[in-house]
Amino acid sequence: MQSISQLRHARLSFLERTLGWLDQAAARSTRSPKHPAHLMTGLRGEDATYFYLRELGYTIVARRWSSPKLRGDIDLIGWDGEWLCFIEVKTRSSRTFQPAEVAVDQEKRTNLARMAREYIRQLEHSEMIPVRFDVVSVYFPGGRPEFELFRGAFNWNDAALSGFRASE
Predict the structure, then answer these.
(1) 20-42 b/e with 16+ CB inside 10 Å = b?
(2) Cβ neighbourhood burial of 67 (10 Å; 0-12, 13-18, 19+)
């Protein structure tokens, strides 16, 4: 008898393979893509990260969340245990240039913090919720994605990011 964990992993694996197959089928279609190639790479990375974080035990509650009051979006929002995590995903097709996480600069961190505050305002007892900002770098050097997860990459008050702390 399979454990619940094995069944959950099998289900996620099936969904991930199905999504990959659908991506390949869409790429073979005769219609031109709706987005430029670099945006398609980013969307592919966000989808892969969703499944990766689910396997790590995150409970994802929002994807590509946006507010009508602010520009931009938050790639993923999820719970990691008691922590409410706002997750920025950066995707690259290879590791030949600068690390993907470097793209989360001061302006991006400030915008993410503003959007996170807007999201938290909607929640009950928001002042009691521990919040964390995570960054995931995704690379597609071949077929399978490679991930680097930076838990607590920055906090509300970071004025300058001196470096990421890798936890995975």
Answers:
(1) beeeeeeeeeeeeeeeeeeebbb
(2) middle
As given in the structure block, the two tokens for residue 24 are 């390949």
Which bin fits 54, alpha (ψ -120 to 50), beta or left (φ > 0)? Answer: alpha
Q: Identify each DSSP E strand in 41-112 by its residue range.
A: 59-65, 74-80, 83-92
* Better-scored residue on pLDDT, 99 or 125: 125
Do residues 148 and 166 lie in contact, with contact meaning Cβ atoms separated by under 8 Å? Answer: yes
Q: Which residues make beta-bridge pairs with 77?
A: 62, 86
Dihedral of CA atoms 93, 110, 149, 147 in degrees, nearest 10, equals -10
> Based on the domain organization, do 70 and 122 belong to the same domain?
yes
115-132 residue pLDDT tens: 999 999 988 888 888 999
The domain tally of the chain equals 2
Domain span at 20: 1-32
Nearest CA to 161 out of 95, 72, 88, 52 is that of 88
